[in-house]
Amino acid sequence: MSDEKVLIKGNYAIAQAAVNAGCQCYFGYPITPQTEIGEYLSGKMQELDRAYVCAESELGAINMVMGAVSTGVKAMTSSSSCAVALMQEALSYAASDELPVVLVNVMRTGPGLGYIYPAQGDYNQAVYGGGNGDYKIIVLAPSTVQECVDLTYRAFYLAQKYRNPVILLADGLLGQMMEPASFGEYPYPEVDVSGWALTGAKGREARKIYSVAPDEKKQIQHIYDLHKKFEVITENETTYEEFNIDDAQIVLTAFGSMTRNIKAAMNVLRGKGIKAGCFRPVTLSPFPHKRISELAAAGKDFAVVEMNMGQMFKDVKYAVDGKSNVDLINRPCGEWLSVEEIVAGVEGVMQGGKTYAASI
Amino acid sequence: MGKIVIDNNRCKSCYICTMTCPKGLIKKSDKTNRLGDYMVEFDDKNSECIGCAMCAKRCPDMAIEVYR
Amino acid sequence: MQQVFSKPKSMKKDFRYTFCPGCDHGIAIRLIGEVIDELGVREEIISSTSVGCSVFLYDFLDIDAVEAPHGRALASATGVKRARPDKVVFTYSGDGDFASIGLAESMHTALRGEKITAFCINNTTYGMTGGQLGPTTLMGQKTTTSPTGRNQDYYGYPIKIAEHIALCDGTAFSARVSLDTVANINKAKQAIKKAFQVQLEGKGFGFVEILSSCPTNWHMTPEEAHERVRNEMMPVFPLGVFKEI
Fold it and tell me: Taking CA atoms, what residue in A is nearest to C46?
């Protein structure tokens, strides 16, 4: 793959990036708005003599990924919101078993079946998870088709580097829109998996990958170890973007596709004399609590702009911890908040300091 | 001519072997194991065992080794 | 004198089965171990484990294993096999895991003709949780969740697993065996071997349903339990090979 830019749909970009990253197996079940990932890979994987299975369900798909990655190969599945809900059990197992599962969630609207309107309602599902027990997932949120490529690469790398499941949290807007993107080469080194992968007990002791611990002390230690690992991930891998943050009085904060409009809104607000800046977590988990806390301590207020009822808002509020004001500008789903709506929202909260919900 | 060796650490006293031996050479013992169950014992005074291994094949706990 | 019967080499050195006294799981796992020895494939095996009494397989067999959530062993095994087609992959589940919560995964794995070997222990109940009504509980059978016995109005009918798997085009071998007598144990071992061989020969999905006693939850002695296998289970779940290609 060259550095040449191609005009490509987000879903295809994710799929091709997975191929470039060395994904050996894809397992999936159709659901709008991510179906193109599976469609694209069905041909590609066969062409490359890699594995592709039309799974019987999302339960089947994610567990096939778990089986495949346990042997040390890279594998992934992709799905959307209500179907990712079905996969939560497996994610809990994968986190406990320390299996490098890569899951792409191209979000649609919920709760329930919802519909295919764009939304960001799966922030909590991805970051806090729906599986049982104390576990953490790495969550990466792209905001452009180019980042769909870059973060897919990173997802495969981080999954194997830390032996932890990774969710790429995209949305229907990104999945369905075309933008120029370049693929380049897979930029990360190959991770040595020979110390744990299952390959048959040849010339070594048999290995078992499991989470059953009928031993209280071992179970306690295991949970501590998982969380210590995530502290290292937090230290090394927390990433975010900032724009005009130094002199900002109010920081527009968003993730994923919503980042696109807060940048434009920031410029409009600056034109009106309001010192606005932008902050955008790239890793939703680990979340950049530390940086937000620093910005809040410097007296900067936050306006969280998101397509849900304030899911990331709570994390920002937790990070700010009362040191400055945090407001929410949101709509639960549907048409993305426009630049005008965000500008009006910021002006509103700056006057009244109240949460602003955009009209339907 | 055969013999069996019963590992009473593995045996869980299910007594399937006592009902399987065609010659009735495996018996419930008077001795008990650490759980208080009567153990089984191999009693072959007249060297009748032919080492057919039927007892071992039916033992769910692999507690019987067979020699022939 | 020479030792003519001992523990299979592919089993771990020091362990004591954690099953109840008289439980047939021990025999089934030993037979799988013996077949693995005879085929010489221990070092090539990756197993996906299930949930239930069957879960502790990897504590007894000296093989690589990855756990799967309840019912997902066959999906996990599909992933393993597709990722490493050169490895020998098998699953070992109970009837609840294989034919209730995991029925979709099991059937579709057979339909796809995955080159995987699967074993299902059918003891007509959920053993580990204390004997509840399961997918293979017999009509009239009393369990903790069918206190007056299974009847169609309330609980529906039990599933004949081996026959259903035999109907799948991807299945290369499907049989039902029992462990109640030495003769049946010998036949069970042959079936287990055949189920591995169809995988090794690339023919398709190999499956063996193993009728098993559960003396604890049936409230019977081990020998009474085997009589029940013969007198009550076999008329509903007949032994035999249902498909072989």
Answer: A200
Averaged pLDDT, groups of 10, chain A, 360 residues long:
87 98 98 96 97 97 98 98 96 97 96 91 95 96 98 98 98 96 97 98 95 86 96 98 96 97 96 96 98 97 96 97 95 92 92 62
What phi and psi, each to the nearest 5 degrees, are found at residue A202? -100, 115
Is the residue at A218 inside a domain? no
CB neighbour burial string for A206-223, b if at least 16 within 10 angstroms, e if fewer: bbbbbbeeeeeeeeeebe
- The domain total for chain A is 2
- B60 CB neighbours in chain C (<8 A) are 17, 19, 21-27, 222
Q: Which domains does chain C have, with CATH numbers?
A: 25-244 (3.40.50.970)
Residues A161 and A291 in one domain: no
Question: A301-306 and A250-253: which strand pairing?
Answer: parallel
Task: Give which of A198, A202, A204 to mutate to test C binding, by max C Cβ within 10 Å.
Answer: A198
Report the residue of C3, C5, C31, C177 to disrupt the B interface, i.e. the one with the largest count of B CBs within 10 Å: C5
Please tell me the pTM assigned to this model: 0.95
Check A201 against C65: CB less than 8 A apart: no
| Domain residue limits at B61 | 3-67
Which residue segment(s) compose the domain that A341 sits in? 241-357
Residue A208 lies in a domain: no
Give me the interface pTM, i.e. the ipTM: 0.96
From chain B, the residues in CB contact with C2 under 8 A are 67-68
The DSSP 8-state label assigned to residue C146 in this structure reads: B
